[in-house]
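Minutes, project check-in
Item: structure for the 202-residue chain
Input as provided by the requester:
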Amino acid sequence: MHRVQTSDTRARESAPGDRDRDDDRDRDRDRDRLVAPDACPARRSAPAQAAGFAVSVALVAIVSLVGGSWTDTGTGSWYDSLDQPAWNPPGWVFGPVWGVLYLMMAVAAWLVWRDTDRPRARTAALVAYAVQLVLNLGWTGVFFGLERPGWAVVEIAALAVAIATTIFLFGRVHRDAAWLLVPYLAWVVFAGSINAGVVAMN
């Protein structure tokens, strides 16, 4: 007598294969979700991005202008009277270098800000960025405004730590933004060595 295959029987026999295919599809979906931080981040609208970039540039411009108003390196100034370490570059170098670094900082902060896919990581990164901006301006005030190079060494050390922290936190949101801050950190460490040299020689 021939065994009659009912629809329930066929369903039970084919079920294992179907389940395997379903498992494969689930694994594919899981792999799609496990993307790199920069692969497909959420983005703000174009007008919002343009406004955000303008604000980011404005912030570093304010820091630069205020710090510049406190800085006097001209002939006969307090700074001009200090003995300088041999590795201190000519005064004209600082302006262009800081201009480029400030622009890179603004772009880095904007790249992090425009990513809306990781709000907590983004907020932590931007808070750290704001802290280092305050410390950046603070160093100028301590060194040139108060004319306290010894205090400024401590301040610039704190600034370097703040920048390193910002780089780490930026990297959790946008790797390119983190790399944009690396030259800034290198320059601050170099400036710190000049600051320390000034303290040692005066």
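Outcome recorded: The chain has two domains: 1-34, 46-201.
No further action items on this chain.
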